[in-house]
Structure formats: structure tokens, C-alpha cells
Design brief:
Low-confidence stretches of chain A: none
Number of strands of chain A: 12
Radius of gyration of chain A: 19 Å
CATH class of the largest domain in chain A: Mainly Beta
CATH superfamily of the largest domain in chain A: Jelly Rolls
Distance between the termini of chain A: 58 Å
Oligomer: homodimer
Largest interface: A-B, 33 and 33 residues
Structural class of chain A: alpha+beta
Order of helices and strands of chain A: HEEEEEEEEHHHEEHHEEH
CATH architecture of the largest domain in chain A: Sandwich
Mean pLDDT of chain A: 94
Strand order of the largest sheet of chain A: 1-8-3-6
Largest sheet of chain A: 4 strands, antiparallel
Number of helices of chain A: 7
Shape of chain A: elongated
Helix content of chain A: 25-40%
Chain lengths: ~230, ~230
DNA sequence: TCAAGAGTTTGCGCCAGCGCAAATCGCCAA
DNA sequence: TTGGCGATTTGCGCTGGCGCAAACTCTTGA
């Protein structure tokens, strides 16, 4: 195992308030791994042997239904924990996690979780804070699905991605990993056809620029108006 | 304060694995309260001063949007915790909780949470298990909203309620608290009109019997077929 | 007993968005 | 450079379910 260093994780939200010597102890028990694009980090129903911290890249968390339909639960960005099934009393992963691009992550055996929780209370508190905000997000999504039109949901999804992973370019803010119309459809409960139509219309109005697996938001503010339903469709 | 006794909470999932003497200590710090039908237990955005355990009755957890739309997040049954914002690092409640019928609950000041978590690790582990399964539920709901037709969603919602709170009667399984068409609509992201039409149709086919704020499921099995989309609509 | 209000049912018209299908485009490998 | 595959675009027709409106029916309180 190459030399893992506390500087990898110092400053991340999950480790806020953890003593420096403890960071060393934590990193010392991790192994690092690379995941190639489109390869799974972990799989739904699989025994939850490890939990992970994403260091670099982006991971798509997908829940699949018995009948084959798939829904994207969320995207994980660098610095976030994933696969923390054990912290929630589960022994299997609840979803598939697929690398959206080549990724680097740290992994710890799940059986370390109870020890970590005991020895590093800040770490465990931060983790539960994360879980709490994911629960919020999930509820927010239920509400969006319940009450909003497709164009609002797609606009919200793009804005969320921009906020989470946007990279400034001279054309606007680029979503920093390959994302297809199909992916956006699976995030918003619609079809790739409808997403394509919406993006085309928005491109015509200068709100976004998009290409193959690529979306750039040019005018976030006007997109927000659509997301909030304060715009009459033309 | 009337004599609170450990027998109130012994045997509940949240307190599994907690020593009997600890149960006494826990109950000793609780106050009990009654909430009249349609009165709030706690309110969205309000300072989260307490967390609660429902002893009797049913509580509706509702998230409201700035624009006035409302979505029912879940129903709480006797024995369940609610308002555990602090365990998730929040200082305010994320939703409104309204008594669906006259209720009895125990309440603890939120500042006890860290102590409880420290002193009664089984209790805290059970709580996080609950949070974990609520997160699962929320994701399941997102998926249902994304991929299912209205009739499937309503059928699923009824089956969930039946499983959670069903009481056997000679006509079938009764959902054991007053629930309106509007409530079901807010659980499934549709309108009371559509719910009414569906229930009427199902009543005609003998699947359910329903009246004012009352639903009895007569044939759960056939309802499940609808929920799973294995039935052609007539 | 009666009136008022809350909850429910039902008819009707409409349209957002899906399903299907076909064409086109862009990228990569050979 | 070319072929092939995956991603995207776009047209067209259809329909599930919503919005609106009106009538009806319990339940409750005076």
C-alpha cells in the first residue's frame, strides 16, 4: 500500500473536529483503491464489507428495481462518504454505486465502524449529520416529484448538479462529468426524449449549452426561474 | 407528573438491548403529554426542543412548501420515535407533525440526546437503524413516484398503511385512523379526485370498502396485483 | 330538528408528456 | 478514412390524469 497520509482527509467535512493524531490512526487503517470508469464501487444487495470515502472522481448511486427500471439516487463528489450501510444497521448495500469517471477512494472494513464511532465521536456525529441531510434531500425529492412539472424537475436537477460539481468555463458552468440525457431522465422520473426536448428548447433560448454527455449552464438565474415555476412556457 | 413506568417502553424496538435499570433512568427523564386530534406535536422550522416517543394514537408528518402545497412524509405509529432532529445534527424540525387522532406521547428535552447516545449505545444504535430504514423508505418512494402510475402508487400506499396500522374486522382490514381522500392524494402525489375515482372503481370490484375518512381493504392480494402493475385496467 | 360545513363523487374537456419510430450526429477503433 | 455504435434529436399521435364545476352526503353543533 502506497504511503497514505492524513493530508488526504484533513479538512473534509466528515473529519471536522477530529484530532490530528486520530486522523493518522484513521488513515492508517484505510486501503486506497482506483475504480475505472463504469465499474462498480459496490453493488446492491451485496454484503457491505467496506465503507468508502471518495477522494477523486464522481460516483453515481443507482437503485434498481426487480423489473429492471433504474433510478439515480444521487451523485457522490470528492470528499463524501459512501456505502455507510453499517452506520444505519444494514448488512448489505442498498444500491449500486458506479464510477462515472475514473475514481480514487479510500476504503475501510465495515467492522471498524463501531470502533470509529466510539473512538472518534466527532466523526460519527458528522456522519449522522450527513445521513440527516441525505434524508432531507430524499424527502425534498419526493416533494418535487409530487408537485412539480417535468421542466421544473429537470431544471432543479441541473441546478443541483451545477452547485455540487460545477466547473466554471468561459461559456458558463459545466457539469464536471459525463452525463447523458438518459441519466438526467433517471434523476427526474421522465424519459430521455423529454429531457432532450427541454435541453434543445433551453439551448435555443441561450439558457444552456449541451452536447454529447455534456451540459453547461449558461444562465443559472433564468434556469432557477423555470425551476420555481415562475415562467410561462412559450 | 403521573407515575411513568418502564413498562411503557420496555419491549419497544427503540429500547431493545437496553438494561432494565437504564429504562428506568430513561423514563425518569421523560414527561408525558396528550395531543388532541388535529393539534401539532411539533412544527416545521421550529426550534427542536424535544424528541418524542408515540405511545398511543397516530401522527401525520407533513412537509409544507413555501407555496402552500403539502406532502405527507409518513405516519407514525405507537412505539415509534419522532422529532429526532438532534440525532441528525439539525436544530429545527424538518416537518410538521399533526395528531391524526387523540394521542399520548413521551417527550425528552433534545439536549439529553448526546447523553443518551453515550450512555445507552443500544438505544442510539436502534435509533440510527430506524433512521436508516426511513432513508430507505424515502428512496423507495422516490422510485415509486418516478416509475409507477397513479393507481399503482395509491395501491402501494394503501398496502403500506394496512401493514403498518391495519386492524382486522369482519369486512377486511381497516386502516385504523381517519384518513381522507385528500390525505391519500398527498401521500401519492395526485389529487383527491383521482383517488376518489380509483377507490370507487375498486369498491365496485370488491377490492376495498371505503367511506368518509375510512378505508377497509377487503382483498389485499388483488390490490397487490394492481400495485405491481400486473393487472390490465378495465 | 335543522343548517352549515366538511368530505366525497362524478362528468367533461383538455393537454403535458409518453411511446414509438426514424433520422442524424459524433466519437472511437481499425 | 471509414464503419459502426451509442447518443441525441425530432415528428406524430395518443391518453392518463388533472383542473374545473356541480351535486351529493354525512356529521356536528346550535
Amino acid at each position: 500500500m502506497a504511503n497514505l497520509d492524513r493530508s488526504l482527509i484533513a479538512g473534509l467535512f466528515a473529519f471536522e473536529g477530529v484530532a490530528v493524531t486520530d486522523l493518522d490512526r484513521i488513515v492508517g487503517q484505510a486501503r486506497s483503491l482506483r475504480i475505472a470508469k463504469d465499474q462498480p464501487v459496490f453493488e446492491q444487495e451485496q454484503e457491505a464489507h467496506s465503507f468508502f470515502l471518495l477522494l477523486d472522481g464522481h460516483v453515481r448511486v443507482v437503485r434498481s428495481m426487480p423489473d429492471g427500471r433504474e433510478v439515480i439516487v444521487r451523485y457522490i463528489s470528492p470528499g463524501e462518504l459512501m456505502g455507510i450501510a453499517h452506520a444505519l444497521g444494514r448488512t448489505t448495500y442498498p444500491a449500486n454505486a458506479i464510477a462515472a469517471v475514473d475514481c480514487v477512494a479510500l476504503a475501510w472494513p465495515s467492522q471498524l465502524w463501531p470502533t470509529f464511532a466510539m473512538d472518534f465521536p466527532s466523526f460519527s456525529a458528522n456522519t449522522y449529520k450527513t445521513v440527516g441531510s441525505r434524508l432531507q434531500d430524499a424527502h425534498t425529492r419526493v416533494i418535487e416529484m409530487s408537485t412539480e412539472q417535468v421542466d421544473q424537475r429537470v431544471a432543479h436537477a441541473l441546478l443541483k448538479l451545477v452547485k455540487q460539481t460545477g466547473r466554471k468555463t468561459e461559456e458558463g458552468i459545466l457539469i464536471d462529468f459525463p452525463i447523458s440525457r438518459q441519466d438526467i431522465a433517471e434523476m427526474t422520473g421522465t424519459t430521455l426524449h423529454t429531457v432532450s426536448r427541454l435541453l434543445s428548447a433551453w439551448e435555443e433560448q441561450g439558457l444552456v449549452k449541451s452536447g454529447r454527455q455534456k451540459v453547461t449552464v449558461v444562465e443559472p438565474h433564468r434556469l432557477l426561474l423555470i425551476a420555481e415555476g415562475r415562467v410561462e412556457k412559450s
